[in-house]
Amino acid sequence: MTYTDLFENDDMKLINLLPQDGEAYYHGKIVDTATADMYLAKCLSKLSWEHDRAFIYGKEIVTKRKIAWYADKPVSYTYSGYTKMALAWPNFLRGMKQRVEGECGEVFNSCLGNFYSSGEEGMSWHSDAEKDLVENGAIGALSLGGERKFAFKHRQTGESVSLVLAHGSLLIMKGATQKNWLHSLPKTKRDIEPRVSLTFRQMRF
Ligand SMILES: O=C(O)CCC(=O)C(=O)O
Ligand SMILES: [Fe+2]
After folding, report:
1. Which of 54, 65, 85, 202 has the CA that lies 20 to 30 A from 8?
2. Angle between the 33-46 and 91-104 helix axes, to the nearest 10 degrees?
3. Which fold is adopted by the domain 3-201?
4. Among 63, 183, 187, which residue has the most ligand 1 atoms within 8 Å of its CB, making it the best to mutate?
């Protein structure tokens, strides 16, 4: 996809990547490479990364991928038998949130960070429609580091759409997307630099 392909017309209106039943907008790189490098370095050194844990059919699963969780309030949320507590925003992360909000016109109150140390770590098909999130709320994913493929698959038709997320780029999902589409970050054997995604969210407090 080239930069101009992102826009529908000269009004710079972004193209909806999904053909039906949802909205996904790829804003491309919203910060220059030097800024994205700085963001990545800060996230790697300053965020509180932990392996994600869950109980699946009574068995404890510990993901290779690490996560870090921040919100406006020290909310806890429970899933798969684990309770996690959100941490307060470090100033630099609040700055990144504001940069993303300015770009997409949405306001976010929480952020789930994901850290994939190599292409062997990914995220399987899922949707983000937990009861703790605002229904049909927006999710803004700021990608930092190694370029990875991101894929959508329609729940009913199986139709798929995929794109490559550049270093410093922003992807917005909103509207009915989580109800009707699954998404994933496929694993790859290719030699990929570490990647962080900051997924800014709208939680129901
Ligand atoms: O890393 C990504 O870009 C995707 C992350 C994701 O889907 C999630 O955090 O729910
Ligand atoms: Fe997701």
Report:
1. 202
2. 140
3. Jelly Rolls (2.60.120)
4. 183
Alpha-helix runs per DSSP H in 87-144: 91-104
pTM over 0.90: yes
Q: How far is CA 95 from CA 35, 90, 100, 101, 109, in A?
A: 12, 9, 9, 10, 13
CA 41/CA 58 separation, integer angstroms:
37
List the chain domain ranges.
3-201
Q: For the chain, give the number of residues.
A: 205
Tell me the CA–centroid distance for residue 111 and ligand 2, in Å: 12
Say how far residue 131 (Cα) sits from the centre of its chain: 18
- pLDDT tens digits for 88-146? 999 999 999 999 999 999 999 999 999 999 999 999 999 998 888 999 999 999 999 99
**What's the angle, vertex CA 122, arms to CA 181 and CA 145, rounded to 5?**
105
